[in-house]
Amino acid sequence: MCASFQRRQRAFARRSRAHGLTMVELIVTIAIMAILATAVLPISRNVAKREKERELRAALWQMRDAIDRYKDAADRGAFQVKLGSEGYPPDLDTLAEGVTVGANKVRFLRHIPKDPMTNSYDWGMRSVQDDPNTESWGGQDVFDVYTKSTGTGLDGTKYSEW
Question: Domain boundaries in the chain?
Fold first, then answer.
C-alpha cells in the first residue's frame, strides 16, 4: 500500500509540472508583456498625430487649390473682381458661397474645411500685399491660408509654416 501511494504521488507530481507554469515563468511573461505594452503607447500616439497631420495637409491643399482656381477664372475674365485684389478671392466664404458667372453660380469649395489642429473653422490668411512672414491679415484678398496652431509636426516643422 505504501508503494502504490508513492507511485500515485510521483505520477501526480509529473502531471502538475507538465501542465502548469512556475511563478518565475509567470513573472517573466508578465514583464515581457508590460515592456511590449509600453512600446506600443508612443506608436499609437504618433498614429493619431499623423492622421491629424494628413487631414491638415488635405484641408490646406483643398483651400489652396480653390484659391488658384478662383484666380485662374478671374484672370480669364469670367467675373468681375475688386480693384487691387490681383484677382484673388476677398475671403474664404466667397470660395464656398461662389460667384456668379453669366447665369450660373460657380463654387470653388463645397465648404470651408475644419482645421484639425485647432478644431475650428478659423484659418490664418495672407493677402498678396502682406509680408510673407506676418501672421496678421491685411484684409485685401486671400492669397494663402495656414493653420493658427502653434504646434510642431512629426517632421519638426511648425504647422503654421505648412
Answer: 56-151
